[in-house]
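Problem: given the chain below (276 residues), write out its structure.
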Amino acid sequence: MCRTVRDAAIVLGALTGIDEQDVATSDSREHSYTDYLQFLKADGLRGARIGVVRKTFGFNEKVDKVLEDALDTMKKQGAILVDPAPIETAGKFGDSEFTVLLYELKADLNAYLARLGPNAPVKTLKDIIDFNERNREKEMPYFGQDTFVKAQEKGPLTTQEYLDALAKNHQLARKEGIDATMDKNNLDALIGPTGGPCMAHRPCQWGIPSEVEARAPRRWPATQHHRTRRIRQGLPVGISFFGRAWSEPVLIRLAFAFEQATNSRKPPRFLPTVNI
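Solution.
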């Protein structure tokens, strides 16, 4: 969505607000800002305590090299690295996360479609599934719709299975996960690779930061991603700064300082093809 951390700060200020149809946003009244540009500090890394989630390293040696260079840059900018700073619960709630996804996919998609009015061509998740089946050759030449089908089988958000899975996610991703790691090490933020470069023979790989962020819903954690230099045939990799709820000001400050220290962004060239 953004070229720079400054762009991200501007967009965040515009997006932040209260949605009367989403009760979780009510907390924004006390924790959000309309102007996040005030947190752009070129020296924002000085004195910051940053935890390195080492478990997210090791899946790609070139990515590791980029991340190690990034760590050196942070230290030179005055950051205090706590290395390693493991999230002990990472990887322990994949099944419950998927359960929550299935329930919420059905409920939220149906709610969205219901707002489109009587002339909408599809009105429910079931309608979408049926449409895809009728047009299988065009709509699903490579992949099926297993997740849609599994979601359709789920009940409402009052179902005990959903409530139990959601509570488990909150406990392991929030209280015993990100928050516990940050409290134990007195951290301002955590870092790890956002993901590896896409490869021709397999999809992009995603590091544990992305997984934990996704499984700690409703404001846990606030995140700020910064793209580092490009590797492997011009494809980008990224480093994630992430932390506890409502820590956007801190994350913006850290990411901006890192961005200014590295100046690693390369504008896209919009090539008609890639030489691999």
